[in-house]
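Re: folding output
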Amino acid sequence: MEMKNIYRDKTIDKMSEADVGSNVRLAGWVENIRDHGGVSFVDLIDMY
């Protein structure tokens, strides 16, 4: 039986296009936030 992590559903290296539109809980630290006129991008880093 796999034990769920209370902080994340999956690691960033396991993210893919199949996750678009779904709710996924990630954990890590924000390296950079880029604002492109109403759309923001966050560079999230984890140890994986």
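--- second protein (sequence, then structure) ---
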Amino acid sequence: MKKYKNIIFDVGWVLADFRYRAFMKDLGFSPETEELFVNEVVKSKFWADLDRGVIDHAVAPDYFKERLPGYEKEIDLFWDNIMDIAEPYDYSEGLLKRIKEAGYNVYILSNYPKRLSDMHWTKFKFNDYSDGTVISGYEQLCKPEPGIYEVLFNRYGIDPSESVFIDDRRDNVEAAESFGVTGIVFTGYDDLLKTFSEMEIL
């Protein structure tokens, strides 16, 4: 009899590459512009508010043009091509398929802006194997806040004690563990497979 019934995954840097630096290189940004955008856009409070779903994606270009005068062209390029800022890892679809075929329920719990999730979920084929998804932008809650875990558990009738949660951030994993979930800090695909083998999941 399986000890676990549910495997819960984060998305960014676990199932998909949040490739913002490569994305900006693809757009032809200089190293200086890339660094500016990393600090002033990707790591900004605005982006955190997008994750939380309390600000509209549509206002982003005007917002940043006010704050970064002289970078209007780069700002338009960035937001017009935002679809390409994340790509699924090669292993993700196959991994979730294997887990489903092994008899587990698969869930997604991710801090992700609402509009970006609408764009990206169509190309994230691993979602075809998900039994349920909770996205921060839709809930106006972000990991590691307890509320977003409660949304997941309550919405899908998940028993935390029968669940494993994988995330690249230790604070998010520890928050899940406070509910009785077994947590795994993601450090790479090969490491995860080894841990799954040790836990007799795969």
